[in-house]
Amino acid sequence: MKDVKITKLKTRDEQEVIGYYEVVELIYDNYSDIKLSESYIKQLHQMLLKYSNKDERHRGTYKFLSNKVVATYPTGEQRTIFATTEPALVAGEMQELVEWTKETMEQKTIHQLIVIGSFIYDFLSIHPFQDGNGRLSRLLTTLCLLQNDYSFIQYISFENHIEQNKKAYYEALMNGQKNRGTDNERIDLWLIFFLESLKTLTEKLEQKYDIFKSKGGYLNDRQKLIKDFITSNQPVKVSDLAKQFPEIGLSTLKKDLQYLRDEQVLTMIGKGKGSVYVLAEKK
């Protein structure tokens, strides 16, 4: 792999970054209502490339040209290192993949993390869109994790982890891909990479939290505004905060409220949409 040049994930133009951010916000705010389907995957892809002028024709539609990954070596030799599905077969394979994932999740005979890892492997192997497949696969990973109660993914970057470990990432994918569609196809190395990545992310998050706890809670300016508003108007609903601070995204408000609860600044009373927030009683 040392002679194979792979574009860094962080080298995206501003248009793509904005699109990615908007899809992340959408997933954070609505993951419990989103149903895994081909149509919704296409909608997410359309949003992801919303601001990308070069991809205007490709937004939300399956690819029409082959997008296999080819490596050029110093000798000039070219070698296919990632053989993706041919365009004519994409629709059928995507339908089969989505149906298998939904059915297996419902049956609960296989652990959901194994199902999610398998789904992402097949999605990347199909590479259904002309561009944006890697970014969309990580957004879908976030969506699936949140829908299965792995809420920690909101607080740490899976995208950044892949960037820092892109060689291991591609090697794990290629190990299964080299025998794709045959009886010898194995995705164990990919699943191990996927699960170890999640383990690493949770450990990093725990370390960050331990540092915060050891130094005492810190409130940024936005969180101080939220606290002050609740102090003057308690009890307060999330909808009250959304009206008071329209410039703050709903998912950001929810994260701040959770942080303020963790720091024992606020107490939540009730459940669901009827819950309200008040200042926590000092011990």
Multimer state? single chain
Q: What is the first-to-last residue Cα distance? A: 57 Å
Structural class comes to mainly alpha
Q: What is the total domain count?
A: 2
Helix residue percentage:
55-70%
The biggest beta sheet reads: 2 strands, antiparallel
Question: Helical element count?
Answer: 11
Instruction: Kindly estimate the percentage of residues that lie in beta strands according to DSSP.
Output: 5-15%
CATH names the topology of the largest domain as Fic-like fold
Q: Can you write the helix and strand succession as a string?
A: HHEEHHHHHHHHHEE
**Would you count the extended β strands for me?**
4
Gross morphology is: elongated
Residue runs with pLDDT of under 50 for 5 or more positions: 6-12
User: Any idea what the CATH superfamily of the largest domain is called?
Assistant: Fido-like domain
Task: Tell me the radius of gyration.
Answer: 21 Å
Order of adjacent strands in the largest pleated sheet: 1-2
> Which CATH-level-2 architecture of the largest domain?
Orthogonal Bundle
CATH top-level class of the largest domain: Mainly Alpha
What's the average pLDDT?
Answer: 86
List keywords for this structure.
single chain; 283 residues; mainly alpha; Fic-like fold; Arc Repressor Mutant, subunit A; 2 domains; two-stranded antiparallel sheet; 11 helices; 6% strand
